[in-house]
Amino acid sequence: MSPNDQKRTAAEAAIEYVQSGDIVGVGTGSTANYFIDALKEIKGKIDGTIASSEATADRLKSHGIPVMNLSEVGGLPIYVDGADEATHNLHLIKGGGGALTREKIVAHASEKFICIADQSKLVDRLGAFPLPVEVIPMAQSMIAREMVKLGGQPELRTGFTTDNGNIILDVYNLDIQNPVELERQINQLPGVVTVGLFAIRGADVLLLGTQDGVKKY
Ligand code: 5RP
Fold it and tell me: Candidates 3.40.710.10, 3.30.1540.10, 3.40.50.1360, 3.40.1280.10; correct CATH number of 3-123+200-216?
């Protein structure tokens, strides 16, 4: 099974978690796109969606799936999104698609976060994938220096602006021994909008598409 088929089967398995009348938080990226395509088939069953990016909102709307504003809804029962890396503890690196801030907001607002991914995303330790950090533009150099102090090598994601009008630093070669502590440490730096570590609020379920079918962690 190709990586894309693994993503699709994981996304389709996540549909089982969607209940009648749910408002569904929807992530961003190629795996989330498979979920959106599967959601189209049951769109009459749900009350609406909360999108984690403009791209996701556009795809949902193109399928005739209603997109709502997070501030207008009370609670969010479920959020479904992909990841760049996931551990067995369900700690994640996200933000390869640059949507990490809205993804973290929707994840935080959700009762249940279902992460969907292909087999290649499961790792023993986070950090082979460069850690995305969304930064207010005026703080770029200062935050880059802070990332060097933490042992990383920051690179500006060129030609990219987030949906919130900010930049992304991709930080290579960080030694992420304690994802919860590192998330706290980077979060509190002035100028950082969001770090792409999802460990304080990780996933609740990981559905991993593999050669042998979808595995649940
Ligand atoms: C976007 C994300 C994505 O979930 C992550 O990059 C995985 O993408 P894909 O499903 O295309 O492999 O965090 O900001």
Answer: 3.40.50.1360
